[in-house]
Design a protein that fits this description.
alpha/beta, Metallo-beta-lactamase, Chain A, seven-stranded mixed sheet, 14 strands, 25% helix, 26% strand, globular, disordered N terminus, disordered C terminus
Length: 271
């Protein structure tokens, strides 16, 4: 059994943070650390894991809802933190302790333990935001067959190169950040902020995410989708579920609640 455990996946603008555990037969890694190290430790304990057992961290970009936990995690001097140069420099500039940075160039492939990692650029309002694909397992291995997962949050639209990357994975984590009507009616955000959220370096709406997943359901090896990074103010879990209901016959689809996330029991991937 290989488990991909989403600890909590939520959006900024008043929400919590982003952090997930990817656990394979030989690796336990965190993708983003948008909570304090103490909070991440508690979330891990809730799914039977611990911070001491984490082998590495992968950062998508420097925004605090994705990277604030690095401050506390830096106490583990041996913990590798994978990030591109712009992200590493932006995060390190706010810290007093050095981090065990493992710097990669966006667009390159590299390995960590049993993981083959591919990085690719995303259109978002950060220094050099990236998505990741993770591949692990071996053909013919009954205990650890080939598996693949893509992590794609914080992007204003989906360029063709991103489509090509995620077309070749079995599991996709993709943001469904906002409902168009709720964002339009929101009285807390000025027009300029709403335009930024809708823009090409903002976030994906429920409809944009749906169009992408519908396309992939017809022309990819995709099996499982996690809809993540929901805005607490401008989205609702039920709206997202209703939007994607017609695709449930083709794919396993889970919506990550920004209030409570989901647990490993919800997202185990059987070999």
């Amino acid at each position: 059994m290989i488990a991909y455990t989403a600890l909590s996946l939520a959006r900024t603008l008043g929400s919590l943070g982003n952090c997930a555990l990817l656990s394979t037969g030989h690796s336990k890694v965190l993708v983003d650390v948008g909570f304090s190290a103490k909070r991440i430790g508690s979330l891990l304990e809730a799914v039977g894991e611990s911070l001491d057992a984490i082998d590495a961290v992968f950062l998508t970009h420097e925004h605090s809802d994705h990277a604030q936990g690095i401050r506390g995690l830096a106490k583990r001097a041996d913990l590798p933190v994978f990030a591109n140069r712009d992200t590493a420099e932006a995060v390190q500039a706010k810290l007093s302790k050095p981090v065990n940075w493992q710097v990669f160039q966006t667009g390159t492939n590299f390995s960590f333990r049993d993981l083959l990692v591919r990085s690719f650029a995303l259109p978002h309002d950060a220094y050099d935001p990236v998505g990741f694909t993770f591949n692990w397992g071996e053909v013919g291995d009954l205990f650890s067959p080939p598996r693949s997962l893509a992590w794609v949050t914080d992007l204003g639209y989906v360029p063709e190169h991103v489509r090509e990357h995620i077309r070749n994975v079995q599991t996709l984590v993709i943001e469904a950040n906002y409902d168009e009507d709720l964002l339009e009616r929101d009285e807390r955000r000025p027009w300029s902020t709403k335009q930024h959220i809708r823009g090409r370096h903002g976030h994906l709406s429920n409809h944009a995410a749906y169009e992408l997943v519908e396309e992939l359901s017809k022309n990819s090896i995709l099996e499982k989708v996690y809809l993540a990074h929901l805005s607490k103010d401008c989205n609702q879990v039920d709206l997202v579920r209703d939007k994607f209901a017609c695709l449930q016959k083709l794919l396993r689809i889970d919506v990550i609640d920004p209030e409570c996330g989901i647990t490993s029991a919800d997202v185990q991937l059987s070999n």
